[in-house]
Amino acid sequence: MDQDKRTLTFNQSKEDETKEFQNDLSITCIEDLPSELFDAIFYYLDGYDTYKAFSNLNHRFEQLINSSFLLYKIKLDRSRYKKLFTNNYKQFLLLNKHNIFSIKLWSLSKKNEFLSSFITDSSMSCLESLHISGTPSDILIPVLIKLADLPRLFSLSICTFKTSKHLHQIYQLILALPNLKSSKISGYSNESLIQLSMATNEQRSTIEYFSTHHHLTLKQLVAFSSYTPQLRRLYLAHTDVFNLNIQSILPITLTNLTHLSIRIFVGNFDQFENIH
Hints:
Number of domains: 3
Largest sheet: 8 strands, parallel
Strand order of the largest sheet: 1-2-3-4-5-6-7-8
Strand content: 15-25%
Distance between the termini: 74 Å
Order of helices and strands: HHHHEHHEHEHEHEEHEEH
Number of strands: 8
Shape: elongated
Structural class: alpha/beta
Helix content: 25-40%
Number of helices: 11
């Protein structure tokens, strides 16, 4: 009896495997592959490259690239911008701006229609991640002001090598973004240019991860921490406590902080212990 059961189970298993193999054989064209597989592939491609490659092929791919579930990633540097920013590219942005998930921009010029027009449109309701590098301050500052209208902007990375003298304003605008969870700021800075007063209850930020790749003094760090009570992870490139009366500075209170990394700390361990 047991032998019959084992034989029946084995035969059923082989039959299931045969059906699965036959189903696999039925996929003879690339468009017959499941949508989930295409979504996984598209995730690693530039949005416009995906759109251009799969448009006007057949009805199946037309459905895929126009699906409300497909999210696009945009990557543009100066050379790519000059080559791609045509009427076709603008049309792609207009039709799909509500499906753009992330944008990475490098060294775009002053006269840049993408930054000044498309990126600040509040209809980009799915935009969660934005990286801007090497953009002049007269373009960057107006963009930051309008980012508050984006309902799902959770991650913002800015490289400010050309705008270091505006770091103070950049900090203020970033801390005012209502939904931001992660922020990274890189750039050369004169520490005196960043002047933050202690935050009020209405100025509290939602940031949980913050990384700064320029010099911050302890006073600036204390002021910054007053804006970020939800901060969990903090990376500092450079801070110092020399020639500073630590006892005269308010303590840093970050009850949610679980990770702290300081690349360069100018001071001694006793001074470091007295910071918190």
